[in-house]
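Hypothesis: this fold can be encoded by more than one sequence.
Test: take the structure tokens below, design a sequence, compare later.
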């Protein structure tokens, strides 16, 4: 039995694609859309898990037909830059893909994770100290 998908909640906002620009006038809508998604992923404007606008929104942004938008989506899916969302109907999420240029190397990601964990531990220690001080003040005032 297939999983049940739900309509995308209104608070899940898609990325802001530029739509057709002056640079895209000599390019097809399909190529313009694909280029904007790939460049946005490469440049870090969009990250893995960001939601693509709906097909209707893409048609308007890129002055494209439904077939052109579906063609661009198909190309991006084959390139592993888009995937169907597991929970939401007719929703795609962005993925830098296996050949993404400019992504953080795994060693750098690990280093940043250790740094983030250290910052979290420091914040937790400060929070515990503040809570202890507040508890002492509460006892003193009682």
């Amino acid at each position: 039995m297939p999983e049940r998908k739900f309509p995308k909640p209104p608070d899940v906002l898609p990325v802001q694609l530029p739509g057709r620009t002056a640079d895209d006038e000599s390019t097809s809508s399909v190529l313009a859309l694909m280029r904007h998604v790939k460049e946005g992923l490469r440049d870090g404007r969009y990250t893995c898990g960001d939601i693509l606008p709906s097909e209707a929104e893409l048609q308007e942004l890129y002055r494209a037909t439904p077939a052109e938008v579906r063609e661009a989506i198909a190309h991006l899916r084959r390139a592993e830059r888009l995937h169907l969302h597991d929970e939401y109907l007719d929703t795609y999420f962005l993925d830098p893909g296996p050949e993404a240029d400019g992504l953080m190397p795994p060693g750098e990601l690990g280093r940043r994770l250790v740094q983030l964990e250290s910052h979290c531990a420091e914040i937790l220690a400060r929070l515990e100290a503040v809570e202890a001080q507040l508890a002492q003040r509460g006892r003193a005032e009682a």
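DSSP finds four helices and two strands in the chain. The mean pLDDT is 84.
Hypothesis status: open.
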